[in-house]
């Protein structure tokens, strides 16, 4: 099915479909693209509350989304040169790559597996928690507090991160980090390297019984223990 140069409305547009191509369209559909597979969408704007629920094998190019609860339980998705304004995006998703895009909204990518963000601008509170196989390459994080909680993460960030809380493992690198928060709920076997490039400070966070492992004491990396 191919749809071009169209305006689409309706609650359940493109539901349980396969092999769909959409180009140069404007869509308003609160449950768009549910349970659909092998979709290519280019140069299109979508307003939707629960788009792409349980769908797979999706390519989005020059795509503008204004939504909520987007891309939940999706698999095998590539998004490039797009703008996503949506809360709770990519929850429980698997194998998603987003490049050269703006991703705005709270609680991004919780419980995701193999989510990869490349040269993206990420905006919003408490992003990227409870994630496995999380990769960020040359991304910006704006207003991102309490990031990476309980996540396995490898992140290279341009600029600052407001705060990082209880990461599980991996490597987080940024120009600066406002605060590192470790509390009694951090995983028992936690091991995460956090690097501030501007001061060339690096520490490995290691759990101990009283949560007093090798923590940051530099002014650029204040640590809050609760």
UniProtKB/TrEMBL annotation:
InterPro entries membership: DUF3737, Pectin_lyas_fold, Pectin_lyase_fold/virulence
A Pfam family: DUF3737
Name listed for the protein in its UniProt record: Right handed beta helix domain-containing protein
Domain of life from the UniProt record: Archaea
Organism: Methanosarcina acetivorans (strain ATCC 35395 / DSM 2834 / JCM 12185 / C2A)
């Amino acid at each position: 099915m191919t749809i071009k140069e169209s305006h689409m409305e309706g609650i359940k547009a493109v539901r349980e479909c396969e092999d769909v191509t959409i180009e140069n369209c404007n869509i308003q559909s609160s449950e768009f693209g549910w349970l659909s597979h092998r979709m290519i969408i280019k140069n299109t704007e979508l307003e939707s509350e629960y788009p792409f629920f349980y769908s797979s094998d999706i390519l989005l190019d020059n795509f503008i989304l204004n939504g909520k609860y987007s891309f939940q339980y999706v698999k095998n998705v590539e998004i490039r040169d797009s703008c996503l304004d949506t809360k709770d995006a990519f929850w429980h998703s698997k194998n998603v790559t987003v490049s050269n895009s703006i991703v705005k909204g709270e609680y991004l990518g919780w419980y995701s597996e193999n989510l990869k963000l490349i040269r993206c601008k990420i905006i919003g509170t408490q992003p990227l928690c409870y994630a496995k196989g999380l990769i960020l390459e040359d991304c910006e994080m704006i207003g991102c507090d309490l990031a990476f909680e309980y996540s396995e993460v490898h992140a290279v960030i341009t600029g600052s991160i407001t705060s990082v809380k209880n990461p599980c493992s991996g490597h987080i690198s940024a120009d600066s980090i406002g605060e590192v928060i470790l509390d009694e709920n951090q995983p028992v076997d936690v091991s995460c390297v956090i690097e501030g490039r501007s001061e060339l400070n690096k520490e490995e966070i290691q759990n101990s019984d009283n949560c007093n492992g090798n923590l940051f004491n530099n002014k650029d990396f204040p640590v809050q223990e609760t």
